[in-house]
Amino acid sequence: MCFDEDHGLTSLAVLIECSPILEKLELEIDIEPNHCYENETCSGILEKCPDVWLVHMKELEIQSFINLKREMEFVKFIMARSPRLKKVIIHSLVGKDEESDMLKVLLQAPRASPVQIVVK
Q1: CB 50 within 8 Å of CB 56
Q2: How far apart are the C-alpha atoms of 60 and 96, rounded to whole Å?
Q3: Cα separation of 74 and 81, whole Å?
Q4: Reported pTM
Q5: 92 CB contacts (<8 Å, ≥6 apart)?
Q6: Which end of the chain is more exposed for a tag (fewer CB within 10 A), N or C?
Q7: How many CB atoms are located within 10 Å of the residue 55 CB?
Q8: Phi, psi (deg, nearest 5) at residue 117
Q9: What average pLDDT does range 34-47 have in this prediction?
């Protein structure tokens, strides 16, 4: 999945909307080398799905996470909409300091269940 344009997040939103009984979601994020992410925007794509609940989701795992705003918004969306979520595993490509900051943000985010967040 590529988060560099709106279509990646839109595709995920459609997938989630069409998969209410999804129990585990594993994503590998495809990043473009030399692509500038500094001016990225998160244009409220996930907010357009207010009725989406993943009542069966138990685990989310993401590979190649680079802490883009879109990535974080997606993880927070899943945590807030998954009342049976037990574990979020993030395999990050950022430094330890940024991982620590990322974890702090996720631990403060609204959650529909007490979820274990693991950053590797």
Answers
A1: no
A2: 21
A3: 11
A4: 0.80
A5: 65, 66, 67, 98, 99, 102, 119, 120
A6: C
A7: 13
A8: -110, 120
A9: 49
Sheet holding 24-28, edge to edge: 24-28, 59-65, 87-92, 116-119
C-alpha distances out from residue 34 to 4, 31, 62, 85, Å: 11, 9, 21, 35
CA atoms 81, 8, 34, 27: torsion sign: positive
Nearest to 68, CA basis, from 96, 94, 47 = 94
Q: Using alpha carbons, list the distances in angstroms from residue 70 to 37, 52, 55.
A: 10, 18, 22
Q: Which residue has the tokens 């974890």?
A: 103
Residue 101: pLDDT band with limits 50, 70, 90:
very high
CB–CB of 56/16 below 8 Å? no
Both structure tokens of 35: 């692509």
> Is the C-alpha dihedral spanning 29, 94, 25, 113 positive or negative?
negative
Q: Output the pLDDT for position 77.
A: 87
pLDDT in tens, 71-89: 888 899 899 989 999 999 9
